[in-house]
Amino acid sequence: TSQYSRDGSGRVCVDGIPVTELAARFGSPSYVLSERTFRSRARAFREAFERALHPLGVDVAVYYASKALLTTAVVGWASEEGLNVDTASGGELAVALAAGVDPARIALHGNNKSADELGLALREGVGRIVVDSLAEIELLARLAHEHGTRAPVMIRVTPGIHASTHEFIATAHEDQKFGLSLNPAREGEDAPALAAVAACLDASDALDLRGLHCHIGSQIFAAEGFGQAAERVLALRETVASRWGAVLPEIDLGGGHGVAYTAADEPRDVGAIAADLAALLAGALESSELPAPHLSFEPGRFIAGPSGCTVYTVGTVKTVTVGPGVERRYVSVDGGMSDNPRPVLYDADYTAVLGNRVSEVAPVLTRVVGKHCESGDVVVKDVYLPGDVAAGDLLVVPVTGAYCWALSSNYNWLPRPGIVAVGPDGWSREIVRRESVTDLLARDTGIADPVHATT
Ligand code: LLP
């Protein structure tokens, strides 16, 4: 069930707590996160794939893609719900470790990991390092030697899938920076993915090749892409077994499961996606001599996105004539592209509702905009909001749990909002403190620093 309701006075509540109360206590704008929703989406994802794949003898592991939203509290919830954690930098890895996640349940990703990041992963004993290039395989083998350990490795392959999503978040077609292609660049050559397997097997005293990884993109609704990717990666696993006699125990199919931002989005039920994959896999397993692989997944947005919303306060309201007899109402809020750059970056659509009251006044087509010095600073492009929306009203923009705080900036020196978590038993607390201008100024070492001031 949804975390949203309206109380007797028409105020939007998150798990029973009115947003007016949250804004009064924690300030505006704030990200508000429902712990119950986050946990139940994490659990639902894991259980759907377990239910579909266990009957085939396939073990399932779910890695929460922490890039979507990472704080120690959030990663703790994911871990308590039986998920592992996917990290994509030394910083993300450090947060997961600080949250007390067992290193064996952490994965490290990235197309350009530094020797320091790889060294940290080796020292801490992370469960898997997903390698992304031949150069990285060499570097990691050398570092593992130096550390006197054997690094657990997955190879990220690019299966050549054109998933229908925004170009900037599609990642399995050939012409981009991630992964090792399944197709040879020139005739007579091995595919880069095969060359990577050979390199890992050659360095087997330092590298423990656990399996293959692919990620086809993000905010994907169609099941076909996942199925095609799985088929291609399983075929590569067959090739590796027949060529080198190596049976790779694991396949990771990445994340990318879409969520509904507005009523126009119709994501398929996660149970149906899991069932489709199981059907496809049943065929592939039957026709294979190899033991079934373990399968893992890396959902980020699916879990975090719908768990969060942003609460803004309305400031200026302006009606602009945009053509003969055509008007558009602009409602400005106290945040914008600094706390949610997704509309600017990906043309992403959101919706908004009046949060502090209900209104009988007829709705008006409205553009909700931020307070930044850019005309592209849009929060919600088109939404019908009551005609009497005025300064001081609260707007709630749902589905901002993923890739909003994570992508936030201090543009125009706006301090970043805090993240308020509403707990299952009606308490609320800030799990990331709101920034102040003082916080930001503390990092400005210019004029306050005599050395810099005089040179
Ligand atoms: N695994 C890998 C290797 C990834 O690169 C990603 C996302 C995920 C898993 C998680 O994908 P998800 O389940 O969240 O779709 N900033 C963009 C999204 C970038 C996604 C990057 N990689 C956005 O706001 O739409």
TrEMBL record:
<dbReference type="GO" id="GO:0009089">
    <property type="term" value="P:lysine biosynthetic process via diaminopimelate"/>
</dbReference>
<dbReference type="Pfam" id="PF02784">
    <property type="entry name" value="Orn_Arg_deC_N"/>
</dbReference>
<dbReference type="InterPro" id="IPR022643">
    <property type="entry name" value="De-COase2_C"/>
</dbReference>
<comment type="pathway">
    <text>Amino-acid biosynthesis; L-lysine biosynthesis via DAP pathway; L-lysine from DL-2,6-diaminopimelate: step 1/1.</text>
</comment>
<dbReference type="InterPro" id="IPR022644">
    <property type="entry name" value="De-COase2_N"/>
</dbReference>
<keyword id="KW-0028">Amino-acid biosynthesis</keyword>
<feature type="binding site">
    <location>
        <position position="374"/>
    </location>
    <ligand>
        <name>substrate</name>
    </ligand>
</feature>
<feature type="domain" description="Orn/DAP/Arg decarboxylase 2 C-terminal">
    <location>
        <begin position="306"/>
        <end position="401"/>
    </location>
</feature>
<comment type="subunit">
    <text>Homodimer.</text>
</comment>
<dbReference type="GO" id="GO:0030170">
    <property type="term" value="F:pyridoxal phosphate binding"/>
</dbReference>
<dbReference type="InterPro" id="IPR029066">
    <property type="entry name" value="PLP-binding_barrel"/>
</dbReference>
<feature type="binding site">
    <location>
        <position position="256"/>
    </location>
    <ligand>
        <name>pyridoxal 5'-phosphate</name>
    </ligand>
</feature>
<feature type="binding site">
    <location>
        <position position="346"/>
    </location>
    <ligand>
        <name>substrate</name>
    </ligand>
</feature>
<comment type="similarity">
    <text>Belongs to the Orn/Lys/Arg decarboxylase class-II family. LysA subfamily.</text>
</comment>
<protein>
    <recommendedName>
        <fullName>Diaminopimelate decarboxylase</fullName>
        <ecNumber>4.1.1.20</ecNumber>
    </recommendedName>
</protein>
<feature type="binding site">
    <location>
        <position position="301"/>
    </location>
    <ligand>
        <name>substrate</name>
    </ligand>
</feature>
<keyword id="KW-0663">Pyridoxal phosphate</keyword>
<dbReference type="Pfam" id="PF00278">
    <property type="entry name" value="Orn_DAP_Arg_deC"/>
</dbReference>
<feature type="binding site">
    <location>
        <position position="403"/>
    </location>
    <ligand>
        <name>substrate</name>
    </ligand>
</feature>
<dbReference type="InterPro" id="IPR009006">
    <property type="entry name" value="Ala_racemase/Decarboxylase_C"/>
</dbReference>
<feature type="active site" description="Proton donor">
    <location>
        <position position="373"/>
    </location>
</feature>
<dbReference type="GO" id="GO:0008836">
    <property type="term" value="F:diaminopimelate decarboxylase activity"/>
</dbReference>
<dbReference type="InterPro" id="IPR002986">
    <property type="entry name" value="DAP_deCOOHase_LysA"/>
</dbReference>
<keyword id="KW-0210">Decarboxylase</keyword>
<feature type="binding site">
    <location>
        <position position="342"/>
    </location>
    <ligand>
        <name>substrate</name>
    </ligand>
</feature>
<keyword id="KW-0457">Lysine biosynthesis</keyword>
<feature type="binding site">
    <location>
        <position position="403"/>
    </location>
    <ligand>
        <name>pyridoxal 5'-phosphate</name>
    </ligand>
</feature>
<keyword id="KW-0456">Lyase</keyword>
<feature type="binding site">
    <location>
        <begin position="298"/>
        <end position="301"/>
    </location>
    <ligand>
        <name>pyridoxal 5'-phosphate</name>
    </ligand>
</feature>
<feature type="modified residue" description="N6-(pyridoxal phosphate)lysine">
    <location>
        <position position="67"/>
    </location>
</feature>
<dbReference type="InterPro" id="IPR022653">
    <property type="entry name" value="De-COase2_pyr-phos_BS"/>
</dbReference>
<comment type="function">
    <text>Specifically catalyzes the decarboxylation of meso-diaminopimelate (meso-DAP) to L-lysine.</text>
</comment>
<dbReference type="InterPro" id="IPR000183">
    <property type="entry name" value="Orn/DAP/Arg_de-COase"/>
</dbReference>
<feature type="domain" description="Orn/DAP/Arg decarboxylase 2 N-terminal">
    <location>
        <begin position="45"/>
        <end position="304"/>
    </location>
</feature>
